[in-house]
Amino acid sequence: MPGLRQRRRDTLAFTVVVSVLVVLGGAGMLLVLALSGAPRTMVTATVLATVPVVPLVGCYLWLDRYEPEPRRLLAAGLLWGGFVATAVAIVLQGIGGLFVGIDDDTSLALVAPLTEEATKGAFLILLLWWRRAELDGVLDGLVYAGMVGIGFAFVENILYLAAAYNGTDGNGPGGTSALTATFVVRCLFSPFAHPFFTSFTGIGVGIAVASRRPLVRFVAPLLGYLCAATAHGIWNGSTVYGGGNFVLVYLVLMAPAFLGAVGFAVWARRSERKMLAAALGDAARRGLIPGTDIGWVVDLGARRQSRSFAKRTGGDQGLRAMRDYQQAVIELGFLHSRYLRGTPPPDFAERGQEYVARIAEVRPSVSFPGQVVPAR
């Protein structure tokens, strides 16, 4: 099976490249963090920087409920953002300041957005290159972009919080008041900033995956990156060139834009439900799955109800079987949708056979509310 062998080679290449870069970036960033303040200062900064992480991750996992992405890849996105993207961005910005002679304000408003969005977006490009099969559309691009942005913001916030407390950020003598002000601005008012910026690149990558046109596949991620860098530059520029209008820019521009992005993400998730229903309906007409099961898979409330029923009637084993069955059907639905759109992955046949075989194997062990419970 050439498609399966190619998928394994691509998976290995992606794993090796990301792992090596995460280790190298992690070593560099740990050194930077160690040199950024006393141990107690860094511990305090790390604890404070952690505050927005869990809620943000929870929001993206909520968006990702139809077809949960592999946890290893989501963790890789967080690590890439926290270590690789931050480390490379620091190096690139340092090179720009050393050889081009850019002042701090210009670096913050221009160089930082270009370099940081490039280093964050590189993870999405690697996914598009080597793990394209994991990307089914715009929503997947948003989820991975969010994870990278969260990881980047976490480490960056540690550095900013430590610098504020030490008084090395150029905004005063430091201390608890400076630390508190920085925490409020970065961790409470704008924790979404980096995930939001990188979401444009994620949208571009998602469009590229869903398109059959080579030009769109090339241009969409590039335009997404340019939009990400532009949004990032407007945000950073308002802090240095806004003439004290930072709060105005936040209220008039950034907050509405973020709310618009949230609305778009929710719309994309609802669209996935319609897409899955249509794709699985076609698959049922082809005899690949029972048509009566579709509603129990694509409706999230019905999915929870069926899992509770499986738990009551079959215990942990029944719950595992139901989860396996629903996940296999969802995976088949996304794959079949790409086939119907004319953008199937190269290993479409092999993956489809895997899902159909898994569905046929598990289906006799599951039942939905109102159906006969299978003998165990």
TrEMBL record:
<feature type="transmembrane region" description="Helical">
    <location>
        <begin position="108"/>
        <end position="130"/>
    </location>
</feature>
<keyword id="KW-0378">Hydrolase</keyword>
<feature type="transmembrane region" description="Helical">
    <location>
        <begin position="215"/>
        <end position="235"/>
    </location>
</feature>
<protein>
    <submittedName>
        <fullName>PrsW family intramembrane metalloprotease</fullName>
    </submittedName>
</protein>
<keyword id="KW-0645">Protease</keyword>
<dbReference type="InterPro" id="IPR026898">
    <property type="entry name" value="PrsW"/>
</dbReference>
<keyword id="KW-1133">Transmembrane helix</keyword>
<feature type="transmembrane region" description="Helical">
    <location>
        <begin position="142"/>
        <end position="163"/>
    </location>
</feature>
<keyword id="KW-0812">Transmembrane</keyword>
<dbReference type="GO" id="GO:0008237">
    <property type="term" value="F:metallopeptidase activity"/>
</dbReference>
<dbReference type="Pfam" id="PF13367">
    <property type="entry name" value="PrsW-protease"/>
</dbReference>
<feature type="transmembrane region" description="Helical">
    <location>
        <begin position="75"/>
        <end position="102"/>
    </location>
</feature>
<feature type="transmembrane region" description="Helical">
    <location>
        <begin position="12"/>
        <end position="36"/>
    </location>
</feature>
<feature type="transmembrane region" description="Helical">
    <location>
        <begin position="247"/>
        <end position="268"/>
    </location>
</feature>
<feature type="transmembrane region" description="Helical">
    <location>
        <begin position="42"/>
        <end position="63"/>
    </location>
</feature>
<keyword id="KW-0472">Membrane</keyword>
<feature type="transmembrane region" description="Helical">
    <location>
        <begin position="183"/>
        <end position="208"/>
    </location>
</feature>
<keyword id="KW-0482">Metalloprotease</keyword>
